[in-house]
Batch of 2 targets.
Target 1
Amino acid sequence: MFVARLLVLWLAVLGLAGAVAPARAEAAGCPVATPIAFAGLDWDSGAFLTALDRAILERGYGCTTTTTPGTTVTLEQAVATGDIDVIAEEWAGRSPIWNAAQARGQVIALGPTVTGAQEGIYGPDVLVHGPGAPAAGLTQVGQLADPRYAALFRDPEQPTKGRFLNCPSGWTCERVNSAKLQAYGLADRYVDFRPGSGAAMDAAVVAAMVQHRPVLFYAYSPSTIAGRFHLFRLGEPPYDRGCWDDLANPDGQHRSGCASPPAVISTGLNAQFVAQAPALRALFARISVPADILSGQLAEAAAHQRPTAEQALIFLRANPARWRQWLPADAAARLEQSLQRADGVTSRASSAFPANWQISIRDPVNRWVAALVASSGGSFRHIASGLITLAASIDAVLRAIPWWLIIALFAGLTLFGARRAGPPLIVFAAFLIIGVLGLWDQMLQTLTLMLISALIAVGIGLPLGIGTAKSRFSQAVVPPVLDFMQAMPGFVYLIPALMLLGLGKAPAILAMVIYATPPLIRLTALGIRSADREVIEAATAFGATPWQTLVHVEIPLARDSILAGLNQMIMMALAMVVTASMIGARGLGEEVLNGIQSLDVGKGFEAGLAIVVLAMALDRTSHALVAQRGGRRG
Amino acid sequence: MAEIALTGVSKLYGGNAKTASTLIADGLDKATIFARTGCNVALRDIELTLPPGAITVIMGLSGSGKSTLLRCLIRLIDPTSGAIRFDGEDITRLNLKALRTFRRQHVGMVFQNFALLPHRTVLQNAAFGLTLHGVKRHEAEARGAAWLEKLGLGGYERAYADALSGGMRQRVGLARALACDTDVLLMDEAFSALDPLIRAELQDQLLGLQAELGKTIVFVTHDIHEALRLGAHIVVMRDGRIEQAAPPATLLAAPASDYVARFVAQTGGPAR
Ligand SMILES: Nc1ncnc2c1ncn2[C@@H]1O[C@H](COP(=O)(O)OP(=O)(O)OP(=O)(O)O)[C@@H](O)[C@H]1O
Ligand SMILES: [Mg+2]
């Protein structure tokens, strides 16, 4: 996932992993001898342009190319240092890191790679056009301040406000959009909602469009969304340098807003790389695709569930006139010839699995999810709103209590349970550290999620653990299900989950529960199973009912194991906090995400530390409370 | 006084029980039946009457079926076939609820490894049986405390079981069983885990209690000395069968087989 990607990138930066995905081709004719390193952009248009550039270089020039995944900022940084040669889609001028590197002469932007690009605040077109359109007459951003529109775009977690779906934390657009909300006087009426990741942002918009729900969001073209749906863009005052600089400045006044500057989308290159290969400089200066055509390609790829590399080849085959203008005659001829051949990108390994034995469950799964999202959105949203209401009330209670009372409460409960000074002191220190780091508010949000998911996890985990220990059937069925829950990468189910439950707390709680319950089930089952047979037999001999045996004998005997399960449950749930923030949950996880996505390691570390100490505090408190029942440790 | 009578009680573990039953009827031995059917014959056709108000000792080598027999008496293990009559009532026919009532009203049990609850105090352990029966905590603990006192554990009520020595723990186990005030006491190798001195002490205590209370006690041991010391009747088991059931004097004077004789030999030859 994200962290893994970051790791790969760091390895690349350290020069330990040069070629992540080498694509072989004869080097003859290629202006550079070494493989050309592309940034592995993970958003749709970026991925498409990368695939396009790579196909042209490999097939037209006979070059070798590689890609290295990473977040935008880290990739931009890597182009500056020369670890990556090319970023196929660079919003030049928007990123402080890029601008600084450009000023130092480390990087060069060539283009325009995409013409007619747009960005801004969008909504579904049906809201304003056509008969009975609920927002007919809405044309300008400023009109959104009208409570009628805030109600239209209502935030499920804070129903008195509307929701504006911003960019994920750490993206350049995120800060500007927040500044715009303030500048347009919308900050009080709209929740500035950050989805946490690009995938989550897209999934949320797609789900809303498919389910015909009003949604107000930041979007840009070229993009799959722009190609796939009929959207309208809200008008903004025209771009103005002074206004924009203020919006882009985190310490700015944000008194008046304006449209973003015309988007200049270029190909970003390392300066030394360009100097080394003038032929490629000329090529990248000429490659150019209109935004609407690009969006169309992306929508087509999405509709057919094609990989972007495949769509890029389809595009090249269908539009020779376009790329003939980009390439010199010999390269164009070679590209033409190559495109006539079969794709030949399938596996070349001699151990390859026989192709006619392969079965794909991809399409049925896709159809099923799509149908589910389109048809049962409503019922899932009931569950979601239940969770959200619960979260809101717990949050409200926590917020109503003064900070020192919360610390006193947790430390006091721990003291009551443990009857020793050690654990409550740890709890006290942990909360103090969080407060001192300035993360109290975020901690409360995380604590709310923790409390709810712990409640659900215990409610599911204890009975299921006991059942698993007692019934042969569940002994056979439950463990593989748990394996599935623990080993299935979270995003696989989280993206569909957020399409069904909506972005924010509900899918975050789901993620934490799915991750936190298995260890509790396993350790409860283990504890019950390994309870002393003779003691259980004694209870039976004295005429205990199964329930009495469970309550008076088995559970107390399994206590240590169950306690270990509770500890693991808390640790797992907190480990999931960062993932949860990728699907829009606020709190400490968001701070971590924000920190690493903007290469602010210190900020990430602070929030990470807060997560650790919160874990310790919750563990000590829960341990003290549970261990206290039944007296001394056996 | 409770009279317990077993007729035709068999217990088979695993394998093909049907074929095994016919082989039992044919009189084949345990090893052959196991080899042919994979069936472990723990008890075969037990016919036994336990005299009321006395200590009956069940003795035999390891694996001879002593524990299985004892557990069948309150259906901690369900016999495969046969009837177990308790004052004439066949308990193998009781449903679960009636069985629980039967256990609560009639039997207390003491275990080899004490089977105490480590998370409860000595007093709570002694009162455990009663609390299960729904006796109010206050009363249950008062009765438990009285038995603890009687067994010489006064003052230890608040300690936890695992802070006590083996002998003291088994006294707690005994107090727990006696507190239930049942007419039958089942003891499976109850003193086997204790060192000889403590063991002798507890044997004396048990004999004293028996003289005073006149309970029906079934005591399992593999130790002939213990059997002779405690038992008014001794049942010697071998491979799931009863080899000989007789008062100690008869056993010593006229062992029914070599197997019994070998046990008797440990005591220093047939007694006069
Ligand atoms: N749950 C079981 N499954 C299968 N076989 C069993 C089971 N319990 C007991 N047995 C077998 O039944 C036979 C009698 O066992 P039992 O425990 O009654 O012997 P024991 O005389 O009490 O021996 P020990 O002195 O070792 O306690 C043994 O052969 C044993 O292997
Ligand atoms: Mg035994």
Note: Chain A has 29 helices and eleven strands.
Target 2
Amino acid sequence: MSINSTEKTTADFNVDLPDASGHFGIFGGRFVSETLTAALDELQSTYEKLRNDPDFQAEFDKELAHYVGRPSPLYFAERLTEVCGGAKIFLKREDLNHTGAHKVNNTIGQALLAKYMGKKKVIAETGAGQHGVASATVAARFGLECKVFMGATDVERQKLNVYRMKLLGAEVESVTCGTKTLKDAMNEAMRHWVTNVEDTFYIIGTAAGPHPYPMLVRDFQSIIGRETQRQCDAQIGRQPDAVVACVGGGSNAIGMFHPYIKYPEVQMYGVEAGGLGLHGDDHAAPLSKGKPGVLHGNRTYLMEDENGQIMGTHSVSAGLDYPGVGPEHSWLKDVGRAQYVAATDDEAIDAFHKLTRLEGIMPALETSHAVAYAMKLAATMDKDQVIVVNLSGRGDKDIHTIAELDGVTA
Amino acid sequence: MNRISKTFDALATQGKKALIPYVTAGDPNKEATVPMMHALVEAGADVIELGVPFSDPMADGPTIQLACERSLAHGTSLRDVLGMVTEFRQTNTTTPIVLMGYLNPVEAMGYPTFVELASKAGVDGVLVVDMPPEEACDVDAMFEQAGLDFIYLLAPTSTEERIKTIGEVGRGYVYYVSLRGVTGSAAIDVEDVERNLDRIRQHVKAPLCVGFGIQNAEAAARVSDVCDGVIVGSALVSRIAEQADNPQQAMKDVSELAHSMRVAMDAHEALEA
Ligand SMILES: Cc1ncc(COP(=O)(O)O)c(C=O)c1O
């Protein structure tokens, strides 16, 4: 199949979602306190105008080309493929973007929105620190004041990124309420935003949150899937049989998936954090083990207890340690267009080492979950089949975690 | 007529304003809540807003966040909270109870079950912070049929159009959030509130109550001047926090503060009359 040459689509998945009020089927929407409604309305109407504005899109494309360094390569991982003994594994190298992850595609887009809206301050929440770094980076680039909310637990396990943000001129606020991780950072960022809506733009780091965030983050990240389509055409003359991406909040995955939704011959696999295993509670896999509920402004699959309280999550990777997921993934799961699976901490760590040794590419621990599943999947497929893994980020930030696990004091 | 409208009608005839205290159910422990509710009525409360604790109270400042944490430490569930209302109703059949909280515990219970149990328990109104009218429209009728008022918030940032919408769909009373921020943040600016309420009153017929930032009796009295009711949350909850190990003392301190507000508000109204 060649996407540029065929118009073959199925009606089912050819719908333009979300609808006007931000729903993907029963998911998404805008479940926020009245205080935020006006700010979200303003963002929505600005974005709706700019979304189809050629000047805005040209500016965005220019930033992606000259600042982020796009297009990112599509790389054939020959030795990894050989070891797995099945389908050819290609890596979409988002780790080669400026700041080392896919996150910057989104922060550039949102910083441009902030600029168009005349907001001089930006705030962000962060887990692994990658989105915080990407936000601090674009804030420096556009001369915006930046404050990043980060759970105290994450501040501790991602020290290097905290320091990076500070070097970039951002203020990092350690969040000590709740479970002291990403969800609490997001709560605190929302609280700050409510208080400062007039002059502050909230750069949400994943394809979740109240409408229009899941839509605009997806749109900005969809460059990943569109480039992959073009590169597949050019490099192998066909589209892949499967695309694989890790899922925290779901931004890198939806960026890869979205352009493929209407081509059902391309299988889509989202890999959640299986933590210590899906049999217990120590994981971060709402799509695999959770149920629909409402958190952070949208209806989506959540990890919650029988009383609707949000549960603490566990993953070796801070960036996947989130009890919710973007609403479009919940929809893709329910309509059966994408499959959601999990990789455990151990599988991810093993994949980290394999990719590092076999290809000289050190993936982020988040990304390692996608690599882990892709290796398993490849082994079940034929040699003439193709898998594209979204290599969402590089692993420098995780070296001390790996070192600790190996008993090395780096 | 339900208890909420009866209460506001009665207050209007007496030329008085409603005092609406908020406490988080299960704070500092489950046993403390029903006595606390009775004590608040004793102290002069007209309506009680009973907080349903949630793990992620996005619209609340540190005071109520910590109250939720204290309550959840004992595993207080929505079912427990409904049980507290049932118990309260055994001896008090007149004071309206409004449950205030976030949507997910209700979603987890399921709307039909919640509506049935809440109305059986004797709940009168429900204020779900993260449930705006656009999202509520599917379930609104279910609440109305069960005699539960869906109480909505309005904010300084609410547009004319939204004020109109909420004027149409809001029942019981409308809760005006007096400031841009979370609960318990800053002190209230009465002039600003007055200007906004003038704007709102053109489209909203339900009683207008004001909350967020009312810290003491004097502020309660001044705010009561420009609205139909005064909602006090963080100021009371911080009294509980100070005496979390001594629920008896906490109840006394909370009642005292609520009572001082009642006295100041009534004196103020008498002066105006
Ligand atoms: C490299 C990398 N990949 C993936 C993620 C997970 O986020 P998302 O699911 O939004 O792509 C993160 C989050 O910090 C990340 O840093």
Note: Chain A touches chain B at residues 21, 29-35, 37-39, 41, 177-178, 183-184, 187, 190-191, 194-198, 292-297, 299, 302, 304, 306-310 (CB under 8 Å).
